[in-house]
Specification:
The chain has about 850 residues and is of the alpha+beta class. Among the domains are: about 210 residues, tricorn interacting facor f3 domain (Immunoglobulin-like), CATH 2.60.40.1730; about 140 residues, Neutral Protease Domain 2 (Neutral Protease, domain 2), CATH 1.10.390; about 110 residues. Helices cover about 40% and strands about 20% of the residues. It is built from 32 helices and 30 strands. The chain has an eight-stranded mixed sheet with strand order 7-6-10-4-3-12-15-14. A five-stranded mixed sheet has the order 17-18-19-21-20. The chain has a four-stranded mixed sheet with strand order 28-25-24-30. Helix 11 crosses helix 12, helix 16 runs antiparallel to helix 17 and helix 17 packs parallel to helix 19. The chain is globular.
């Protein structure tokens, strides 16, 4: 027996065709893809190519049969593990280098080829199989693959790891009246009777999670500018919504042009098409040549708010940025998945600036990046931007607001530290060095470090590798200002950062603070009446003004003239309300006093969101008056976008009888032309819950108003959670504990949220324990955002002590529970923990 001894990043491993390999390296055979297995395969496998074919039947109940040929060079003759997360019965035939493998060894989601079936050098493995359905997203008239982060192995056998990039060649057989789209151009299309065969050109080197195809009854539209043609595929039937494609095409083109100019690299893939899908799990997914979008994010209502228009442009720019950051250069392992998301969000924010010159983009980044990041960073379930990952099966739990939104906050500070010109030079070198390959954050930091004298490694350690955010407490004593930065986890960390402080008095003065130590002291030019923190919005953390400044802000924030300062200080107030430095009644009074006069759409949107979050804490004696004042603003606020947002929060929060009657009349007459069809459907759900005796009639009437078949399917799924029959609601909840009943994840999340509606809190506590018990399976069978969304829908509307005790008991009984999954629960349960501590 010949034994090859290898020394490398995964240590000392013995390889042979016998079971000694398993004895020496048990992690290779773990379910999923262990880091050890991935490291070994990366060292052993080169020149990987996949040839794939799928036979897609018209009926979604009929299995899809597949055939794959894997071609690769192997460093030596050895055992090879191929990943396939399906039942053994779905492996129909394995032929290794022309020889059938009689008894296929299949363990823990791996097809294990013995060394006797492989050769040193070129290998060809052919596998006939039945495709798994989990990530095929099959609907009656269409299907689409969504394989991020480790779901390719649920569809076809492969080497599932991001650093084994491969050329994919795809063939689809499908109904003749369906269209097909994939990462590359169609090379040939042949129709025979009611079936057709579509062959696609080979791809550029791609990670498995970026391979994709969509097939079904789709409309197609092309757009050409400056010699470049892109195509959109969609199912939307509303002509007014479809007309928005011109805007979407224009924003795609603008994003491509900006990125080519900034990076110095032409668009690096064969084509750029996109597909807009109902019920899509994410906002978008950056498959090269076949980017997927959720229809609600692309096709807006007739009267979109500025937030909605900005969000669409940023979404398009985000997914387009991924073509360079994530697709051209991909992380080596999913612990660095944040490196693709930080660039996508950071550059998206820069790309949209010239598209919306009327918007204050510093203010917008505060509202999006900073506020979203704080929403997780303040919880007990917060995490570092960079998180350890032992197995690819847990990669979906890495995702969250921290990697999407704290990371670009960090990136802004890094660029500020090293300078824009140096940063751009480093980015261009990084992309050229690792094109069509893989890189780590450390690889990038080494390049950026070479462009500056600043200590980027130390900066990166605290901002990237450590969890949490600082609390910055302000104190004045005459003409002395003192700012203390505190690490809430008592590790003694310092978050280096710069921000502005405004001194108020007979004259206002702005000073620049550079926190290079945990204590900052400064002699002031005069004795201020108050000191306002972070007025440029560049700081990050919980800013705690002294008591006089906090009280003044709560009573006067709307008088601050500068939009960025007003946005930032409103966020400061919100964090202090959450920290219980401001009472709920004082906070809501501050919001409904300042909001009527607010002229800035982004500030008004922020204040409206804060108002929605505080409604349940208002003293019962004050509730009716607050609802009346909100309703008045829905009718006469000077900003149409604010009226829309206030009406949306009002119809989800109003409980007083007079206000519910107003909502019922509004729904009957559909009299607010600024509300869209989905708004009236949402209102129907809310009214059905508030008016149980009329619930069946309300839902029947609303269903009759819907003519689009995809929206009707959505209504039929979600409306089951708005009925008044408790037994039916219990049956509905129990049905969702089975994976096959929760395949369309956004709709499932909506059902769970309505089942746990605030007005049903007492009767829905019973759902918490079984809902948490199934969370591990939700993570195993769902896509990356589903565990957090499931937990948030299950827990987010609960404030009671009994609900709190259920969550605490569940976690206490499971000391070895997955830390990543526990964080998702703690993030979702933040309102519950805050209310009970």
């Amino acid at each position: 027996m010949k034994i090859h001894i290898l020394f490398g990043m995964i240590g000392f491993i013995l390889l042979s065709g016998c079971n000694r390999a398993a004895e020496k390296n048990p992690r290779f055979y773990d379910a999923g893809v262990s880091r050890e297995l991935a490291g070994h395969r990366k060292a052993q496998i080169k020149n990987l190519k996949y040839e794939l074919s799928f036979n897609i039947p018209r009926q979604k109940e009929v299995a899809i049969e597949g055939d794959i040929t894997l071609r690769f060079d192997l460093a030596s003759r050895q055992e090879v593990l191929i990943d396939f997360r399906e039942e053994r019965e779905k492996i129909k035939e394995v032929i290794a280098n022309g020889v059938p493998v009689d008894k296929v060894r299949f363990e823990n989601e791996h097809i294990i080829l013995p060394a006797s079936s492989t050769v040193e050098g070129a290998n060809e493995i052919r596998i006939r199989f039945t495709a798994g359905n989990q990530s095929l997203n099959r609907n009656d008239e269409y299907l689409y693959t969504l394989l991020v982060p480790d779901r390719a192995r649920t569809v076809f056998p492969c080497f599932e790891q991001p650093n084994l990039k491969a050329e994919f060649t795809l063939q689809l057989e499908l109904p003749a009246d369906w269209k097909a789209v994939s990462n590359t151009y169609i090379r040939s299309e042949t129709v025979t009777d009611d079936r057709k065969t579509v062959c696609f050109a080979p791809t550029e080197p791609l990670s498995t999670y970026l391979f994709s195809f969509v097939a079904g009854k789709l409309e197609r539209r092309e757009y050409t500018r400056d010699g470049r043609t892109i195509a959109a595929y969609y199912r939307e039937t509303d002509p007014k919504k479809v007309a928005q494609l011109d805007i979407v095409f224009g924003q795609v083109m603008a994003s491509l042009h900006w990125l080519e100019e900034y990076t110095g690299i032409a668009y690096p893939f064969a084509k750029y098409d996109f597909i807009v899908l109902p019920g899509f799990q994410f906002g978008g997914m950056e498959h090269t040549g076949a980017t997927l979008y959720n229809d609600n994010g692309i096709f807006l209502s007739e009267h979109p708010t500025p937030d909605e228009e900005l969000n669409r442009a940023e979404l398009i720019a985000h997914e387009t940025s991924h073509m360079w950051f994530g697709d051209l250069v991909t992380m080596d392992w999913f612990d660095d998945v944040w490196t693709k998301e930080v660039f996508a969000n950071y550059f998206a924010a820069r790309i949209v600036e010239p598209l919306f010159p009327e918007i204050n983009h510093t203010q917008n980044k505060l509202k999006t990046f900073t506020a979203a990041s704080l929403s997780e960073d303040r919880t007990m379930g917060t995490n570092a931007i960079r998180q350890p990952l032992d197995n690819l099966r847990n990669a979906g739990l890495i995702y969250g607001q921290i990697i999407y939104n704290k990371a670009p906050v960090m990136m802004e500070k890094l660029v500020d530290k090293m300078g824009e010109a140096n940063f751009r030079s480093g980015i261009q070198e990084y992309l050229k060095t690792y094109s069509y390959g893989n890189a780590t954050w450390d690889d990038l930091i080494r390049i950026l470090d070479s462009k500056t004298t600043e200590d980027l490694a130390a900066f990166s350690d605290v901002w990237v590798n450590r969890k949490g955010m600082p609390t910055l407490t302000f104190r004045t004593d005459g003409q002395e200002l003192e700012i203390r930065q505190h690490d809430p986890y008592n590790r003694g960390l310092l978050w280096p950062q710069r921000f502005a402080v405004t001194l108020c008095g007979e004259r206002d003065s702005v000073i620049r603070v550079n926190m290079t130590d945990t204590l900052f002291r400064m002699q002031l030019p005069f004795v201020p009446s108050r000191v306002l923190p972070n007025t440029d919005g560049r700081g990050y953390g919980v800013f705690v003004p002294d008591e006089p400044a906090l009280h003044w802000l709560a009573a006067h924030w709307w008088e601050i003239e500068d939009d960025t300062a007003r946005q930032s200080l409103l966020m400061v107030l919100y964090e202090n309300y959450l920290a219980k430095h401001i009472s709920a009644d004082d906070w809501v009074n501050s919001l409904i006093t300042g909001l009527p006069a607010e002229k800035n759409a982004l500030v008004a949107s922020t204040a409206s969101g804060y108002l929605a979050n505080v409604m349940r804490e208002i003293a019962p004696a004050n509730r009716a008056e607050v609802e009346t004042r909100i309703y008045t603003m829905t009718q006469n606020h000077p900003l149409p976008s604010c009226r829309i947002q206030l009406m949306r929060l009002f119809m989800q929060n109003a409980i007083s009888e007079p206000m519910v009657k107003k909502l019922y009349i509004l729904w009957q007459q559909q009299s607010d032309k600024h509300l869209n069809r989905q708004d009236y459907t949402t209102l129907a759900y809310e009214l059905a819950i508030r008016m149980p005796l009329e619930s069946e009639q309300i839902l029947r009437t609303q269903r009759a108003r819907i003519d689009d078949p995809d929206r009707l399917r959505q209504f039929d799924f979600i409306s089951r959670a708005a009925v008044s029959d408790t037994a039916r609601l219990d049956t509905l909840f129990n049905s969702l504990l089975a994976a096959e009943n929760r395949r369309i994840e956004p709709w499932t999340t909506a059902v769970i949220r309505y089942l746990n509606h605030p007005l049903r809190e007492d009767q829905s506590v019973k759902y918490i324990r079984p809902g948490l018990e199934v969370l591990e399976e939700v993570q195993r069978t769902g896509d990356i955002f589903f565990p957090k969304n499931w937990a948030a829908a299950l827990l987010g509307n609960h404030l009671s002590s009994s609900a709190y005790e259920e969550v605490v008991r569940f976690l206490n009984e499971r000391p070895d529970y997955s830390p990543l999954l526990k964080n998702k629960i703690l993030q979702a349960a933040y309102p519950l923990y805050r209310a009970n501590n």
